[in-house]
Amino acid sequence: MEKNEEIKNEKINKKSKKKILKRVLIILAILMCMGVATGLFLLYGPYAGFREWLITTAMTTKSHQYLATWFYDDETIREVLEKNKVQEVEEITDSSLTVILDDEDKKTEYANEYERAVLEKDPNNEDYKIIEIEGKGYSGYLAVIYDPSRIKTVYSKKLGTSGQYLTTMAKDNDALIAINGGGFVDPNYNSNGANPLGITFSGGKLITSDSYSGTGGLIGFTEENKLVLGKMTVKQAQEMKVRDAVTYGPFLIINGKASKVLGNGGWGTAPRTAIGQRQDGIVLFLVIDGRTVSRPGADMNDLIEIMQNYGAYNAANLDGGTSSVMVVNGEIINDPIDSTGAHKTRYISTGFILTKGDGE
Hints:
Elements: H1 2-44, H2 48-59, H3 66-69, H4 74-83, E1 85-87, H5 113-119, E2 128-135, E3 138-145, E4 151-155, H6 166-172, E5 175-180, E6 199-202, E7 205-209, E8 217-222, E9 227-230, H7 234-239, E10 242-248, E11 251-254, E12 257-258, E13 260-262, E14 272-278, E15 283-289, H8 300-309, E16 312-317, E17 326-328, E18 331-332, E19 350-355
Antiparallel strand pairs: 1-13, 2-3, 3-15, 4-19, 5-17, 5-19, 6-7, 8-9, 8-10, 11-12, 11-16, 14-15, 14-16, 17-18
């Protein structure tokens, strides 16, 4: 009897397990169907926000444009990019509008918290101040630099053959602070950063002079230590006495006028680097982290808002994504993440640095 009961119980247990397994499989199938349905709704449904975010974010990466081209034809991608773009101010910086002030001439009463954050120096550091930046979906660092005469362009020692890590360029040039600079030629999205885009100046010397037709243009400092932005030729740059410059964009603010951002700007959400200068001459280096679930990064509207908050009168977007790095005293302080999700940076062509002052 007992043995028959055991056999009976075993059969019941097996049937119960089969029922449970069947129910689990049914639930999983339902969830998968719901996931597919949700995915299809997001990709092709009436709500365009997700579709435009996916296309603009994917199409501005180095190696993940397939995330857009898998799901959408060329015409759809073109239409989305046309509706989401940055309309830049069609001017060249008027450097006479920037008046570099000595410390004693700068304000001691502050209009808001941002102005206080910039103008109240770190008591332990006369050269610069690091401000942590937080916003919806992003975090990063703003370096406030008080002496624009000490900002220089650096470039890879292996230019034409290979880029270098920003940490290497910073060390080789004895930099206090460094950020990545302009874009670089990137065929098939596997470049090693060997060749900068467009025009590059370093220490008054013309390093590269290639033509450039992308957004933005020349981003550099004159011999008067003023940040100038514009779509200009080598001759125009030399006439403006540009000493250190890179090429990239889009321009965010020119002569106090912000670019108009249509939709999400066409650049999606990603890690970002930007540079700006206030009318009093103070320079702003900005690096924003991204590529995590809670912190995907910033778009062009975010960059404009941050730069305006901290008083930038001229500002431009620099290379972003895996290139976005800030080095302080030889160490990377932000969290660069490459397209595979690894926490690391990459070879780049150029950067901006703050050099050490006399006697340091």
